[in-house]
Amino acid sequence: MFVVLTATLGGMAGLTEPTGAEQSVRDSARATAILEEAGIEEPPAESVMVASRTEGGWRAAAADVVRAVKDTGRVKDVREPLPSEDGRAALVGFRMRGAGDSTDEKPITEVLDAVEKVREGHRGEGVEIHQYGEASAGKWLNEILGDDFAKAEWTAVPLALGILLVAFGALVAALLPVALAITAFLAANGILALVSGQLHIDEQTNSVMLLMGLAVGVDYCLFYLRRERDERAAGADAQTALRIAAATSGRAVLVSGLTVMVAMAGMFLSGLLLFQGFAVATILVVFIAMLGSVTILPAALSWLGDRVEKGRPRLFGRRGGGRGRKQAAGGAGSPGVAGQAGSTGRRAPGGRISGGLLRPVLAAPGLFAVLAAVAMLALAAPALGMKTEQLSLEQQMSEDAELRVSAEKISETFPGGPSPARVVLKADDVRSAKTRTALADFRSALREEGARFGKGVETRVYADSGVAVIDVPLAGNGTDEASLAALDTLRGRLVPDVLEPAAADGQAYVTGELASSTDFNDQLRDGIVPVFAFITAVTFLLMLVCFRSLPIALASIALNLLSVGAAYGVMTAVFQHGWGDSLFGTQAVGAIESWMPLFVLVVLFGLSMDYHVFVVSRIREAKDRGAATREAIREGVRATAPAVTGAAVIMIAVFAVFATLSMQDMKQMGVGLAVAVLLDATLVRMVLLPAVMMLLGERNWYLPSWLRWLPRVEHGEADFARAEHAEGATGPVAAAPAAVDGTPGGARDRQHVG
């Protein structure tokens, strides 16, 4: 009812997206705010380049382009063809009629069709015609976003279900984690739409929320369900198994969920609306998934009972579960169970493969700790040269996309043409002699700079609003050193010296794609420090309280930073330097999307804590029952290895789906997160963590005397679960409870519970 209600209300409310000023920061935001406050909706600009093999050979085709676009009735302000310096190309500029944020794609479709007819009419004459602009790029973006989100939704969910079916061997058991993840996403999506009325949410947030919903929803359910099945296999009845799962995995879910939500809350400190939206979305979906894992999931398991084993494909046979396990073992508490589980009523830790891998690690922990750390640091090394920028739409496209090819060819011939810098001037009287003189002087100053700025400077004056807008083509390709130098000249000298004296209160600002990207990067550089400090400090405190161990808390931070560093290094190597980019089905664009490092940091801290909390909780549980450190590490890692591996495989598969999408930022996110989860679940959790804990020995559980006041968090079964298990058992299980090392453990267990 909760999911249906929230999804319905959210659907009725709809998602409220941010304005251009809200999406920008610093001078770019101020410039956009001036336009929005004045009610100026800049019509989308389009450019059509006609190139020929000979000088002037473009004239006939260019004239046909001008005539064709005018005949559509969808354009205005069509400029005469602007020749290139070598005379072999010309640029036709115009603006679409209507607002810049219009979702009606019919006008631009008609213009694109008209230009295509001209292209066909001049085919074979040695003439090339390329079109690019805000409207055509926006049309591509809308189509890609819709297709990509549908692909992610319809690929990731069945993929996760298939992996879970292999992991559990039963359809009903496999459906539970997917159902929890989907319902958490639907409910969070509905609430997010309601929240967006107050905090405007970017459309990209939906993809991020789906990704996080699948990640944590499947993780939490998988760990809970795996523990319940392990207890059933050990001879517990259905209700006792559920109670033990609630007291162990359920508690770990709460700790992990709280840690993830706190990590996500760090994005509020970034000062960027995009990340604030990410924070709200991820916190919502994690909270709902966590809530469902400790309420709806145990209720469903209690209601299903042994029916959770239904839907077992024949190829899996009967691997034992529920009723089958109990019958095979001879019932709870039978000699067979006691012989299998030992005097505690527990079976030996599973995970044969993990046991084989763990044996040499525990035998030579120092060697393996050094080797694993060196491997992680080597993967992280390329991140030292990471370059970030707000990728333009053409960079988001694949290399062979027609629109990207057109944008690159136009930029080569007419630098700054497709994406000029936009200077916005607010004056008390834009028609005054002072303002007119300043605008004329500004154009003269641009000409004096020579090659630093391109041709086709366009000025538009809105007298009623007191605003003037000047489009200034920048040298270079729009992102290189030449373009950045031109932008610095505009912001550092020309605009302050020439335009600001004529502006009202100095309101003269530069925006545009490059300016917005620069401002965004600068804000991220300033914002990532408080976000990083907040996440590391709060995660450290949560781990300190959860495990009452200073070394464990410090190790949590160090291991997570290694995973994040490795993810940064791989992304930089693949998408900036192009090392092995073909292996990932992508191509390098020379930079990392500017919001990606901060987002990956926060998400990986959250997801890594999932695995860390579950593994260390199981180790601490064994330690609390009296096991020696080596045995506790072996039991904890082997017992959680199947669940951690299953969860990691699902996450890697889901992130890999995002790596196959069309948008470059989604590819970067998918590859970075998939590689990081792979490393975290294998090299970090299977090698580094046990090696480090083995080296620390009993110092793992060191807590300074001045911190002894911290609350004790129980990691084993609750008193009532243990008591009910003992009452329902017979023979050796009930008669002689003992710790895993074979010594009497009842008193010790009660002491730790207290």
Automatic annotation (TrEMBL):
Membrane topology: Multi-pass membrane protein
Domain of life: Bacteria
Segments for region (Disordered): 315-348, 729-754
Chief localization: membrane
Regions that span the bilayer: 159-188, 208-225, 252-275, 281-304, 361-384, 527-547, 554-575, 595-616, 637-661, 673-696
Localization in the cell: Cell membrane
Protein name: MMPL family transporter
Native source organism of the sequence: Streptomyces diacarni
